[in-house]
Automatic annotation (TrEMBL):
<dbReference type="GO" id="GO:1990189">
    <property type="term" value="F:protein N-terminal-serine acetyltransferase activity"/>
</dbReference>
<protein>
    <submittedName>
        <fullName>GNAT family N-acetyltransferase</fullName>
    </submittedName>
</protein>
<dbReference type="InterPro" id="IPR051908">
    <property type="entry name" value="Ribosomal_N-acetyltransferase"/>
</dbReference>
<dbReference type="InterPro" id="IPR016181">
    <property type="entry name" value="Acyl_CoA_acyltransferase"/>
</dbReference>
<dbReference type="Pfam" id="PF13302">
    <property type="entry name" value="Acetyltransf_3"/>
</dbReference>
<dbReference type="GO" id="GO:0005737">
    <property type="term" value="C:cytoplasm"/>
</dbReference>
<feature type="region of interest" description="Disordered">
    <location>
        <begin position="187"/>
        <end position="213"/>
    </location>
</feature>
<dbReference type="InterPro" id="IPR000182">
    <property type="entry name" value="GNAT_dom"/>
</dbReference>
<feature type="domain" description="N-acetyltransferase">
    <location>
        <begin position="19"/>
        <end position="183"/>
    </location>
</feature>
<dbReference type="GO" id="GO:0008999">
    <property type="term" value="F:protein-N-terminal-alanine acetyltransferase activity"/>
</dbReference>
C-alpha cells in the first residue's frame, strides 16, 4: 500500500521521513517510551534510521503495518510529536485484525492528542475502504494507565490481564489486553477503574513520570 496522510483539524498523521531521524532518536531515548514500549534501549540514531528507512516503508509496502508520525495540522513540517502504528496479525483469514501501538513526546501529552490520532487511525482501519478490519487489539504492560486511558476513550474493552504475555527486550511482562470490534461503539463502554488507577486521571494533573510496571 502507498503511504498516505490522515488528518483532521486536531492532528495530522504522515509516514515519518529521513528528516525525522534525529527527533525520533531523541524521543525514543525518553524514559517512559523505554519503559512502556518495545523500542530498543539504549536507543541509538541507527535504530531510528533503520526504523524510518527499512521497517516503516517495508511494512507499508507489504501490508504488514501502517505507521504514521503525529504532528499538528497547523505545523505539518514541524517536529514529530509522536508515533502511531497498526500491525497486522497476518492471520490466514478474511476477517483481519491488527494491533495498535503509540507513543507521544512528553511535551505533547495531556491534550488528548493521542486520542485524536488513535481515533483517526482506528476509523480508517475499520472502514471497508480503508483496511476493512474486523478487530483491533490493544496491549500494554500492566500499570500503563495513560495508554489504557487512550484505549478506553476509543471504546476498547479491557478483557484481562495476562501473565507474561508481553515480551520486552527478551523479558516477559504481564500485560493488559483489550479489543475493539468494527461494530463496537467508539466511546467508553465500561466504567473507568478509578480506584485501581488512583486519583490522577481526570484531575488535570498530568504526571511527568509514569510508574515502572
Ligand atoms: C500513552 C501516551 C501516548 C498517552 O498520551 P496522553 O493521552 O497525552 O497522555 P497523558 O499523560 O495525558 O495521560 C492520559 C490520561 O491518563 C492519565 N494518566 C497518566 N498517567 C497516569 C497514571 N500513572 N495513573 C493514572 N492515570 C494516569 C492522565 O491523567 C490522563 O487522563 P485525562 O486525559 O483524563 O486527564 C503517553 O503517555 C506516552 O507516550 N507514554 C509512553 C509510551 C507508552 O506508554 N506508549 C503506549 C504503550 S502501550
Amino acid at each position: 500500500m502507498e503511504p498516505f496522510v490522515l488528518a483532521n483539524e486536531h492532528v495530522r498523521l504522515a509516514m515519518p521521513t529521513a528528516a525525522d531521524v534525529d527527533r525520533i532518536t531523541e524521543l525514543c531515548q525518553g524514559q517512559d517510551v523505554a519503559d512502556w514500549t518495545t523500542v530498543p534501549s539504549p536507543y541509538s540514531r541507527a535504530d531510528a534510521a533503520s526504523f524510518i528507512e527499512e521497517i516503516v516503508p517495508e511494512a507499508w509496502r507489504t501490508g504488514r503495518g501502517n505507521t504514521w508520525a503525529i504532528r499538528r495540522p497547523q505545523d505539518p513540517e514541524g517536529p514529530v510529536l509522536g508515533m502511531i502504528g497498526l500491525t497486522s496479525d497476518q492471520a490466514p483469514t478474511t476477517d483481519a485484525s491488527a494491533e495498535i501501538g503509540y507513543w507521544l513526546a512528553p511535551e505533547a501529552r495531556g491534550e488528548g492528542l493521542m486520542s485524536e490520532a488513535a481515533r483517526l487511525a482506528v476509523d480508517w482501519a475499520f472502514d471497508p475502504e480503508g483496511l476493512g478490519l474486523s478487530r483491533i487489539v490493544w496491549t500494554a504492560y500492566t500499570g500503563n494507565w495513560a495508554s489504557r486511558r487512550v484505549a478506553w476513550r476509543l471504546g476498547f474493552r479491557v478483557e484481562g490481564t495476562v501473565r507474561g504475555h508481553g515480551i520486552q527486550r527478551g523479558r516477559r511482562r504481564d500485560a493488559w489486553i483489550g479489543t475493539l470490534l468494527a461494530d463496537d461503539p467508539r466511546e467508553p463502554v465500561e466504567p473507568w477503574p478509578s480506584a485501581e488507577a488512583g486519583e490522577r486521571v481526570g484531575s488535570g494533573v498530568h504526571p511527568g513520570a509514569s510508574p515502572h510496571g
